[in-house]
Specification:
elongated; 5-stranded parallel beta sheet; Rossmann fold; DNA-binding; homodimer; alpha/beta
Amino acid sequence: MSTITLGIIEDDQLVQESLNEFFNAQAEIDCVLMSSSVEDFLTSIKSLETLPEIILLDINLLGMSGIDGIPLLLNELPKADIIMLTTFEDNDSIYKALCAGACSYLSKKTSLKKIKEAIEVVHKGGSYMSPSIARKIVNSFAPKKNQSNLLTPRQKEIVAEIVDGKSYKMIANDLFVSIDTVRTHIKNIYKALEINSKAELIKKSYDNEL
Amino acid sequence: MSTITLGIIEDDQLVQESLNEFFNAQAEIDCVLMSSSVEDFLTSIKSLETLPEIILLDINLLGMSGIDGIPLLLNELPKADIIMLTTFEDNDSIYKALCAGACSYLSKKTSLKKIKEAIEVVHKGGSYMSPSIARKIVNSFAPKKNQSNLLTPRQKEIVAEIVDGKSYKMIANDLFVSIDTVRTHIKNIYKALEINSKAELIKKSYDNEL
DNA sequence: TGTAATATCACATCATGATGTGATTGTGCG
DNA sequence: CGCACAATCACATCATGATGTGATATTACA
């Protein structure tokens, strides 16, 4: 197996040292750059001969946050894979990091052995998530338990049409009822969901809040 | 650690045997039911004393597909966690299984040791994905390469407000411009995106097609 | 049997959205 | 310099959406 080149952006001195020490002892992984901030990292890579294939990235950094740094890093190193290594495990951070282009997300509690495993997995074109984080991600797909019966079946049909971009007139046609009936349904839907515009309805629908 | 009770739905005789043999040798895991179809499984669990906490589920089954079976299984065993174990690794199967409520997804190539690990991880409230599958999932979050420059920065601001559920009037207020300016922007946005309603705009935005 | 919930329709009114035409200003680029 | 383009504003018009009030028929359940 060829050596994997690694970059690390991490502002905690202790974590830096422990990672450095560990990877120095690993023949398969070569840490080519260690920085305390995204800004530093971006200037430093310009003078490197061998660029990192994998970047371990913290979120809570001096200067720019790791999440905001992802697009910049990918811009400079389009082929690099980014692995988040952070204490933040809230849905929002995870979601934002993945959307920005990170391809793996590890809790800082992860053992060095597992971090190494994750690096190797990512290098092979896969991805590894900490179990707790993977669970949060799958939960974001799963249907809400509050499969709330806020809406009647008929109302859900109407919502489906609206979300599909249909006008009242088209809905009336599709469902073989009058426009006024559609209006009434929508009025009741708005009341049930405590909203008052199509935009909010579509948003709720996409966010699975029905 | 208390014993984990397991159910398996798998129609390949060989896989059944190899799983059975393996788990019989594991003190931590007790396979309480092995079926060849979702239908069989659902009738058989009625006569069980100890219900499975975890279900290993194949997709390609006689009768109902594993994916279609997920809601039925969760209905009977609301506390159970479902782990997919299948050769199907296409995005669509993965997406559908997770949306239906599966909480883990393993390739059939996964070693028995890793399957056991996955069961334990899931039992602790986490989730484990095969690396190749995890990668597909994260890719579904990542931004489209076609970060299309169809819209100007200002137009993107307007879209953000619309998607947020704001009316033209509110947008005009927020951005300190007149309603007519907002109208013009939206007109141009519609032209650029070849659409003609707010609903379609919000849809495109949520589907990352901007 | 009566009441609640659902689904249907009507009429009215005002707000908002969609679309067209036209104009001004500033910025950047070849 | 002149052109393209982004961003701003105005006026006009018609379609659509939001909201209220009221009514009828059906089903479902206590």
